[in-house]
Specification:
Length: 392
């Protein structure tokens, strides 16, 4: 397994390894597996794999069968792209045997799916040994990948692995790939993340779960998606800051929607630290961007002033005021329960929001989690969990 920070070259290195193995073993089959088919098709099929061929194997010509999502080499070897979200298609493809199985972004996969796919690592190719590859931005230490590759334990019962020598892991970070990254990416983009997120995406460290936190990073990662399905309703949740200034809280602004499948999708985090009219403009901008049905905002501090400011920017905005009558732990628990059931999906990554969620331990919290509160209000409206709130 290659683990480490963002843009460190993990995927490129393992795709090159698969191409090398495919070239050595004529007629061999190799699977690249990701949680979502659209993700593996876009990031690897349309980007990393063609780039690896162009840079490392410039004389090769691969044929791509779009209907099967399979690349074929001149020697008859095949590289299959598989997404586990399309169960029927995945079952059909996994009826085949492979010489290599590569779990891309394995932090998003559950262990049972990995075990099932590994049963297909069974093609007999005399030129190469069958191998499984994994990569990830390391999530928390509670994730199965940490148990298996770092602790060398079975993740279910925590007993030692039967053959620990068969499992190896290597850290690779953005600094190791600096020459291939845009100028300022490490210092500005990754360096601008919170300390906790820097540990994961810059330093490649496995995270400790915050004791008492309602959310775990693995809970978020396992349900993350690339795209949302058709949405039947979209809401923008707002948690206004009481004051405006350099030391003020952010105003939490989060858009979320309900899909045709009944699940919930976090679409955007546009939280800002600015004056009231400034964040009202951001709210309206997001409301229009997603053609939202409603804005839901907490009015404990500001009352009718908040709605009035929003209507200065957009007189026709649909607004519902909510008043918090209980502590944050009571407000957040219903939303956290939806995550535990796998019913909330982050469409992409929201580092600051996820940092607030995974570090918020209600009994020990000293700072208001603004982004998280905005998310909670949006999910409460979408799930009709209004019995826990007073809707003004």
């Amino acid at each position: 397994m290659l683990f480490g920070g963002s843009r460190s070259g993990k995927t490129f290195a393992l795709v090159c390894a698969i191409l090398t193995r495919a070239g050595k073993a004529p007629g061999s089959r190799h699977a690249i597996i990701r949680r979502h088919f659209n993700g593996v098709k876009t990031s690897i099929g349309a980007d990393t794999l063609p780039k690896a061929v162009r840079l490392r194997f410039p004389t090769w010509r691969l044929d791509y069968n779009q209907s099967d999502s399979v690349f074929r080499l001149a020697n008859g070897s095949e590289i299959w792209l598989i997404g586990l979200d399309d169960a029927q298609r995945a079952d059909k493809i996994l009826g085949k045997e492979f010489a290599t199985v590569y779990f891309n972004e394995c932090s998003e996969l559950d262990y049972s799916s990995v075990q099932t796919a590994l049963t297909r690592l069974a093609q007999n190719c005399p030129e190469i040994r069958n191998k499984a590859f994994y990569d990830c931005n390391p999530p928390s230490k509670s994730h199965w990948a940490y148990r298996v590759f770092i602790q060398k334990l079975q993740p279910i019962d925590r007993t030692p692995l039967a053959n620990p020598g068969d499992y190896d892991a290597m850290l690779i970070n953005p600094a190791d790939n600096r020459e291939n990254l845009p100028a300022g990416y490490i210092e500005n983009t990754l360096g601008g993340l919170s300390q906790r997120q820097q540990k994961r995406f810059l330093l490649g460290e496995w995270l400790d779960d915050t004791e008492g936190a309602l959310w775990r990073q693995s809970m978020i990662d396992s349900a993350r998606v690339v795209n949302a399905p058709e949405l039947v309703r979209v809401v923008v949740g707002v948690d206004p800051a009481v004051t405006a200034g350099e030391e003020s809280d952010h105003t939490g602004i989060v858009a979320a929607g309900m899909g045709v499948d009944g699940d919930f999708y976090v679409l955007a985090d546009r939280s800002v630290r600015t004056d009231p009219l400034g964040w009202c403009r951001e709210v309206v901008k997001l409301y229009r961007e997603y053609d939202a049905d409603r804005v839901v905002g907490e009015v404990n501090n500001g009352g009718d002033l908040i709605e009035g400011l929003l209507r200065q920017v957009d007189p026709d905005i649909a607004f519902r005021a909510v008043r918090a009558t209980r502590g944050k732990i009571i407000r957040a628990e219903p939303a956290a329960a939806l995550y535990e059931k796998g019913r909330v999906h982050h469409v992409g990554s929201f580092p600051e929001l996820e940092e607030e969620m995974t570090s918020f331990a209600p009994l020990m919290a000293t700072k208001s989690p603004d982004r998280m509160d905005a998310l909670v209000w949006a999910l409460a409206e979408l799930s009709k969990g209004g019995q826990r709130f007073i809707l003004a």
